[in-house]
Amino acid sequence: MRPIWPYLTADIAPIPAAIRRRDEDFQVEEVPLYDPCGSGDHVYAQIEKVGLSTRRAVGEIARALGLTRNRIGVAGHKDARGLTRQIISLEGIDPSRVKGLQLPGIRVLDVARHRTKLRQGSLRANRFVIKLREVPSGRIGEIGSVLDVLARRGVPNYFGPQRFGLRGDTWEVGRALLQGEYGRAAALTLGPVAPPDPEAARRAIFALDRSLLGFYVSAYQAWLFNAVLGDRLPALDRVLPGDIAYEYISGRLFLVQAVAAEQARAAAFAISPTGPIVGHTMLEPQGEPAVVERRVMEAAGVTVANLPRTGPLKCVGARRPLRFRPDETRLEPAADGWGPYLEVCFVLPPGCYATAVLRELCKTGLQEERTGEDPA
Asked: How large is the greatest C-alpha to C-alpha distance in the chain, in angstroms?
């Protein structure tokens, strides 16, 4: 079951549009957190990949250079359906070998040395250039209006298809695992488990990779976050007494007490309210925010005390901003050899999804070419 979470701009009807008719219609470029220093044992390479996931591209590069994967670092993972420019680091390799790579779907744009390996999350932002095709010309102004609202109030920070899978049911697997319904979890992933089957078959789910089990649990945590966000959506840009707020510059979390002063900062997009990634280390809100989160958890039959603290199903917990701000937004009608399109450009903080922006722009009118998951 794929739930339809509410839209912030629900007053504007769905706008027909198509994305990813070609890989080049969806472009993303990483904005690095820092520049390489020019010396050291690691080579930083800016690569351009087309039609390949980051994992697949790293695998191809590792094979070509005779490196193990653990000697290659990435700041972020990008999917296969698009054109991506991103930075990777390679340990103990001659820069000339990296620069000379010629692989299908991969180009090396630049290389430089640095002292340390590139770590996950070492990004300042991601810059997107997206071609929306088949947009009715009379509705381009409405797309601009939606983008203005998102720039002013924020984009609902929903987890999307990347977390819930093509069938939209990874969260159901996670829920079954946390509720001890291992047979149901196995049925959702491996096929039906009949009642006469031995216990070993019912626990076959634990034959899966530990990281995959953790992914299913995180998908359910994401589903619960989305439910809280949907409940608070009308006041997305307001902080309430007892909120756990997120400060964008410092990344710190704090309890909201002086609401008038903090609301001024929220209006300026210096802070935002947060929602729960349920787990044992999660900071608990107070007041009305706590009531909302408790209502969602009770409806789902979840209590933090009953969540696993250890093992592959452990729920550590965190807080996540309810919204994020798109910067450098721009719309421009244009055309190419494949016809007219509307070019939509914006810059997002790391970890924020362009699909969250697109779902607000077009809602159920968005059509996407799906090529399936990259197996590597």
From this structure: 64
Position 208 in a domain: yes
Query: Would residue 19 count as lying in a domain?
Result: no
pLDDT at residue 195 in the model: 60
Is there a domain that residue 54 lies in?
A: yes
Average pLDDT of every residue of the chain: 91
Burial class (CB in 10 A: 0-12, 13-18, 19+), 302: buried
Beta strands in the chain (DSSP E): 17-19, 26-32, 42-50, 72-74, 83-91, 106-114, 123-133, 155-156, 244-247, 253-255, 271-277, 318-321, 323-324, 327-336, 339-348, 366-368
pLDDT tens for residues 135-178? 999 999 999 999 999 999 999 999 988 788 777 889 999 999 99
The average pLDDT across 286-302 equals: 96
Residues 81, 171 within the same domain: no
Q: What is the count of structural domains for the chain? A: 2
Contact status, residue 347 vs residue 327, Cβ threshold 8 Å: yes
185-206 mean pLDDT = 68
Residue 299 within a domain = yes
Check whether residue 102 and residue 167 sit in a common domain. Answer: no
Taking the CB of residue 104, how many other CB atoms lie within 10 A of it? Answer: 8
Q: Give the catalytic positions in this structure.
A: 79
Query: Structure tokens of 21?
Result: 């008719």
205 shares its domain with 96: no
Confidence at 107, pLDDT banded by 50, 70, 90:
very high
Q: Which domain holds residue 55?
A: 34-121
In a shared domain, residues 219 and 289: yes
Q: What is the rounded CA–CA span in Å between residue 283 and residue 295? A: 17
Q: What percentage of the chain carries pLDDT values higher than 70?
A: 94
pLDDT of residue 79: 84
**Residue 142 CB contacts under 8 Å (≥ 6 apart), including other chains:** 12, 15
Cβ partners under 8 Å of residue 295, min gap 6: 231
Q: List the structure tokens of 335.
A: 């055309």
